[in-house]
Specification:
Layout (H helix, E strand, L loop, with lengths): L10 H10 L5 H11 L9 H28 L11 H23 L5 H21 L6 H19 L5 H20 L5 H21 L2
Helix pairs in contact: 1-7, 2-3, 2-6, 3-4, 4-5, 5-8, 6-7, 6-8
Length: 211
């Protein structure tokens, strides 16, 4: 794709968007949406919300980031952005294992089924991305964007709440994420769109199955 198509989209802004909406942060944003949206989940006890946030922050954000320097030291990855497809495989496998642990912990918690199905879906998305990456470089950023949009749509449908502000926000953010990945030449349009639809369908189907 011709970079002139994004001449009004600065590289610095694209890098900022990619950093702010890194795939590892998506579960945190998802939890924030679930607990802040005007639905019954907003009335869950504060202690439950705090524990779930803590589990996600430690298991799915801090631990993966802590492991990055080790991956660099062991020459598993050659850059912090992990642009090489083969170099993504080990970090994705570790991430998937951590999501399986998170899912197992949350399933044993006395929380609504919606939350349990969300974490199962997060594990399935990570597993799908890992399997695909063995053969093809899919956009994990776009995968997260698609999953985030699917989450808001499912939340709106299940809770019988339109959530117009949340829908506008996630569609706008999703567009920014996908445009940023193209602007930085991190992915082809096919990889970006494949990531978006894979994330959207994987989360939607998993949550519908486990509801």
């Amino acid at each position: 794709m011709d970079t002139n198509d994004f001449k009004y989209f600065p590289d610095s802004f694209a890098k900022t968007v990619s950093a702010l909406f890194h795939p590892l942060f998506m579960p945190v944003y998802s939890m924030a949406i679930i607990f802040s949206a005007p639905t019954l989940f907003g009335y869950l006890p504060f202690e439950v919300k705090r524990i779930l946030f803590l589990i996600v922050l430690v298991d799915n954000v801090l631990l993966p980031f802590i492991l990055l320097p080790l991956f660099r030291y062991r020459n598993i990855i050659s850059s912090w952005t992990i642009d090489n497809r083969r170099e993504r495989i080990v970090p994705l496998i570790i991430t998937t294992l951590l999501y399986s642990i998170t899912s197992y912990i949350v399933i044993r918690f006395p929380v609504p089924l919606f939350l349990k199905s969300f974490f199962i879906a997060a594990f399935m998305i990570s597993l799908t991305a890992t399997v695909i990456t063995f053969w093809w470089k899919i956009s994990v950023h776009s995968l997260g964007a698609g999953a985030l949009i699917a989450l808001v749509l499912i939340l709106s449908h299940r809770m019988y709440s339109p959530l117009p502000g949340y829908l506008v926000a996630v569609f706008f953010i999703g567009g920014l994420i996908m445009t940023s990945r193209l602007k930085l030449n991190s992915h082809t349009p096919a990889q970006v769109w494949a990531g978006f639809f894979t994330g959207f369908l994987a989360l939607s189907l998993t949550m519908l199955i486990f509801q």
